[in-house]
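User: These chains co-purify. Model them together.
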Amino acid sequence: MDCRLRVCAGEEKRVGTRTVVVGHRPVSETDAYVAQKFCDNRIVSSKYTLWNFLPKNLFEQFRRIANFYFLIIFLVQVIVDTPTSPVTSGLPLFFVITVTAIKQGYEDWLRHRADNEVNKSNVFIVENAKQVQKESEKIKVGDIVEVKADETFPCDLIFLASSSPDGTCYVTTASLDGESNFKTHYAVRDTTVLCTDEAIDTLTATIECEQPQPDLYKSLGPENLLLKGATLKNTQKIYGVAVYTGMETKMALNYQGKSQKRSAVEKSINGFLIVYLCILLSKATVCTTLKYVWQSNPFNDEPWYNEKTKKEKETFKVLRMFTDFLSFMVLFNFIIPVSMYVTVEMQKFLGSFFISWDKEMYDEEIKEGALVNTSDLNEELGQVEYVFTDKTGTLTENSMEFIECCIDGHKYKDCISEVDGFSQTDGPLKYYGKSREELFLRALCLCHTVQIKEADQVDGLMGHPERKYTYISSSPDEIALVKGAEKYGFTFLGLENDFMKIRNQKNETEMYQLLHVLNFDPVRRRMSVIVRTTTGKLFLFCKGADSSIFPRVQQEEIQQTKVHVDRNAMDGYRTLCVAFKELTQKEYDKIDKQLNEAKMALQDREEKMAKVFEDTEADMHLIGATAVEDRLQEQLAETIEALHAAGMKVWVLTGDKMETAKSTCYACRLFQTSTELLELTARTVGVNFLMSDSKHVPCVPRSWTLTQEYGLIIDGATLSLILNPSQDSGSSNYKNIFLQICLKCAAVLCCRMAPLQKAQIVRMVKNTKGSPITLSVGDGANDVSMILEAHVGIGIKGKEGRQASRNSDYAVPKFKHLRKLLLAHGHLYYVRIAHLVQYFFYKNLCFILPQFLYQFFCGFSQQPLYDAAYLTMYNICFTSLPILAYSLLEQHINIDTLTSDPQLYMKVSDNAMLQWRPFLYWTFLGAFEGLVFFFGVYFLFQNSSLEDNGKVFGNWTFGTIVFTVLVFTVTLKLALDTRFWTWMNHFVIWGSLAFYVFFSFFWGGVIWPFLKQQRMYFVFTHMLTSVSTWLAIILLIFISLFPEILLIVLKSIKEKNHQVRNEVMYCCFATPADGDCQQCQAHHSHPAESLPCSLLAQRCWASQQHCTVTPAALHCHPSRVPAAACACPPSCSPSFPAAAAASPALGQHVVCCQPALTSCHWVSWP
Amino acid sequence: MAVNYSAKEEADGHPAGGAMPGGAGGAVKTRKPDNTAFKQQRLPAWQPILTAGTVLPAFFIIGLIFIPIGIGIFVTSNNIREYEIDYTGTEPSSPCNKCLNVSWDSTPPCTCTINFTLEHSFESNVFMYYGLSNFYQNHRRYVKSRDDSQLNGDNSSLLNPSKECEPYRTNEDKPIAPCGAIANSMFNDTLELYRIDNDTRTPITLIKKGIAWWTDKNVKFRNPTGDGNNLTALFQGTTKPVNWPKPVYMLDSEPDNNGFINEDFIVWMRTAALPTFRKLYRLIERKNNLQPTLQAGKYSLDIAYNYPVHSFDGRKRMILSTISWMGGKNPFLGIAYITVGSICFFLGVVLLIIHHKYGNRNTSADIPN
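Assistant: Joint model of the two components:
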């Protein structure tokens, strides 16, 4: 981002830049000012306007293949003489289209409202030395805007002047990139003084800057560009000139279009649809062909009793064949049910309420539950293979807390008293004796860049009601450290005229002159300060990552501290080491000179500075280490382990720096101690490598060990090198190699990611072979692009604004809620909708197949088998509600079981229930039943009479018997599949059948004045007076359901068989010392098939109903195999003292406690 | 491009705003989901587990129920007497061969007589059917070629029949009553049955009422209404169907079986489901309990052969049948029941053996050590 303020114009206008005239005052009259067109500051996210809604919406709806198909069928019915009336398909279609249009219209109205809220919000613009209140959307490029504290910037601004005299302001970009700390921005130097309305109005200038670009990180650098969406903090007001507005702001450019997401289930539906379309077409073709073969015989074509109408005789044969084909299409078109789309939509819409109603996903703190923005993706939640998660605010709580420190190998916690003498002090303290601790605390107080903010202003990040001041820093760690020191009695009071004030334990104020700050940089990974005490002593205090401090201190000091640091790091704390050295005046003078020289250097300044830093920070003495906790969200590790166990891969994509991210990954057990890390970062690759275009990616081990778990760490800079290869053609397959590595790693951590890079990663994985289902979780605006990119986007209703949750498909209060959302809700919705889809195709196949077969017996004349009312009502009334209730209420496995046993999730992975195999099964079932219905009744009708009075039935009775069998069979089939019978299921299933019977009586009981034909008059009643018909209906229903029942029996026998072999004896151990650390050991019943320990543990996990994992138990297992330790089931009674003798043999798996066998019992798993 | 956000909410959602938790707590309306069984998906539910243990007994029970029913039906069906004569006359030896190429308007009608012998006597009421083969009463063009409101006695439809009746809607600019192909092709053979006893032909009384559905006869089919009961006057302005020798108001002499409510006509108007079908023609009632309805012996069937079927390769039959509680003779249902019941029973046995085999192992495992 190149943004320069020119006081006078004259240079040639460069291509690709824009010239902004501040305050619309031409710089000079002579300068030919060509007004550039800029877009206004209106944000438009809505799709429709009032005028284009109808045509645009209809167009979009009919672009859907199914809708278009139904439209065609409808038109055919209107135009051609078809066996069924246009109403039968026109009415459902109209219903679908209307409902969808209303829904989309409503959603767009909400978007309009949201846009208006932003666009109509008030801003102040300085015009003619006066403040003018305007609506946000009226801001034009070049306007001078005044922004007050805690307001968001309405557009991208160049910072001209601030209320503070030094021309600075603090800004938080939490809603842009998720970093919630305050960043300092500086006003353009020449205009800093213009801090009143009048003064600013006198400014005459033009700005030349780049055309809008989406790259957020490049642009965040310039210190005088304020981005739209960021919030002004701790500064009364600022003046800025608008340079990018509306859709051209960085923020808008960083959002991708919210394209309509389609679920995998919908793709499967489309696949099946094509199969059924083929079936339909072939049926129609077969019938048309056979019709003309049959009709080639003249007495078949036109017997004397059935002459053609004049019109029929006159039409051309080809045209007649074509209309016949269309007629057959219409006759059989019910095989592709329009009602399925309605039911699916209803299921999704209504089903999504259960997510927002779930009280387990309600968070007491923010007083909110889950939010569903899209109901289209419910089932996708059950198919997730990759989880991409943001770190700050998603995995962590985004609040740092000082936990403990270690001074000279002694651990201190809470108060300055030794907690745990890990290694006894041996030998005298070399420097300050007992005040070693004080030195450490002073170091904490001095070695930072924290600023003090008086609390009379609006408090910021670390605001605390009682405190009179707040700390501000670009690093939350530093604040935590300073506050930690304060807890121990050393309070940092601020910086005044280069003197740092500290109040020590005795309440005395100490003053230190701050001589130099050797700033933090990610390469060095440490920072230092040089201070002079009042007594004239010179100290250098340095703090940094252990890896960067240890090589620079006395080697003999390291050991003691290292133990603590490693332990803290394993616990997931962010550790920093503190070191110091005393400088003589002579040394200091040298350093001072070198530093000043390096600062003044015109060339290679960075390198020279780095060298001076390197030289200065050497030969130090280690004082201690600190442990700061970025508190992880509750139940994070459990959740991630559950996701892992459910077969998902979790990737962390964060804008945060690597060290922090890494420690979080360890803390949440994404990386385990056994995981071998592959680092692919700017540091390992090297800055020089980034600049050059080297041909190979380093750090990839040549041999890939299968048993080893790998974790990959990559940063944004390296990633952009891989994903956006420069001119180099050979580098294009970097992406492939990288992807292969990534997919093999158990966990991947990407740090320093720009929002769009996150989306890039997601897209990359999304487009790999097999197109796995991806899910993104995030809480900040910087996650929005990846949330939009992934198949499913989840927003965390965190502290960083509402951007993420607003753009997400689902929003939950906490990361831990993912567990229930995916494992229980997702799984259930998937099973429900998959069953719904299969069932719909099945029931329409066996609905239409008899009608097809009937054509063979009615001279291929397109005579419908069923009455028009039955044709229309079958899908709408008779068989719709049971499946809808099923698809809303079914729990084939209990919710609690689903949540606690993540491996069940894998049962439905890969769209298992909508693969071709189950589809074929359902199709065959439908075909079989269709055949049974038709031929069963066909053979029944060989009889002269079915009534005991000798009277005969006609064709409508034939159809009604088939239809009755059909309705009962498909409903009972669903009843067989239902595993969760609530009163609603009972009501709709038996109610539907009762309604069918009632309707049939009613429909046949009246001579309907509006009907042309009274063909159903008393047909149903007569049918029921015949005993034969009753017997036939019962028989046919039973035959149709028989294969299904048989299958259930066979499955049950098979499972039983399976279960017996998996029977395992669990022996429970309880330690007398620690009740929490109960161990449950598995011992296989067949010793010959003894299993390795880890496998046993896995099995232990699988039998959740008997063993539950306790975190305490997990903690004590070094290999961290999930559920290696389980708590004993309640049924474990100490009834087996005799078996205690066996315990040594079993006890070898028990790790942390000496076990005492209390009981053994048998459990089995599914 | 969807940029959904509002500046207002951003400010609200920021940690700065949340710095004082509970500051505005009182005003926050609780959005806590209701803890109802329905909303938490915890409705009390019956969760059936279909296992071999529960289903296999059902197999036995179904087998045990179905087999007796099947046997019952089968026996009943076998006890039904049925006699069928094909009188199409395609074979040259057939007495009706001379009438094979008869046309609609041949006067006087071609008549033929077929003699036959009943081996067994027909004990209960006998139903006389005529049967047609290869006659597509279920052809779509045919099925819809009728006007039910005309048949229901609607006067406007009488004079202006539905378009569906084309090409049998009007004749010589007069509306046809009853219109349509179905009515036009009404079966018009006359069948008479004689018992031959020592060369004397005793006519057997054939009852022509009570062969149609009661609802059809009394509700669905109505003669046009108007002044008086003179059907001739009521059908004024209409013409007879092309193929009929006489108009609809001259179908029968009895007024309650004439016009649209003629039962032969009503029976014909109920279109058959399949191209081979039977329709009830006459009833032969049992006179007294001492004598069977039709004794075994010789009979002759007199046919007024009017109905041409040869042109479309059709067949005509006359069927005499007794009826049981389950209707006419039909071995299908009985056999099907027996088969399904047997399969059920057999599978039940086989599966029970398999189940038992594994079940044994299971129970033994329950005892630890």
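The two ends of chain A are 61 Å apart (CA to CA).
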